[in-house]
Target: Protein-L-isoaspartate O-methyltransferase
Amino acid sequence: MARSGGVRSDDVVGRPDRVDAAFAACPRTGFLPPSEQRHAGRDHPLPIGHGQTSSQPSTVARMLRMLDVPPGARVLDVGSGSGWTTALLAHLVGPTGSVLGVELVPDLATWGARNLAATGQGWARIVLARPGVLGVPDEGPYDRVLVSAEARELPTALVDQLGPAGRMVVPVAWGLDVVQRTADGVTITRHEGYRFVPLR
Model:
């Protein structure tokens, strides 16, 4: 695996207009507990219960731009939580694509699926994670993988679920790694200075 570093967090790829449109179509308010909804516009993490958070909106937007999700893509959303990132990804892929969210906490998986269903994007769904299994390998490979929890080291089990030319954005040890599968293997670009809840 080839690595590169020294990349500023704002040096990102993608289509900001499409990400902005996804945020407008799927407001964060609908993916927060009632007690937190008045804070939806604040640019910092908010609790959603069970020790989990709804990530800072600017960070979510940056991750989506790093991921560069094309219409029609097959996407895996690891740590879907409230369903917000799954809904945003569903807007980006459109009805010709598919998004599979996976969540380890049963109550969050149920709540997130309900929040997602309210957006009317039937090409996206959320399932309960299988204990000890990262992602959903049986339904791969995926064109894009988004991970919203921090790993201690690059999770190779998720790298293995990337299809040809697939891309993954994953928090790893205080940073974000953009993992790109190429004909020659895998390259990793590092973006420093991010914290997330731990990947389990």
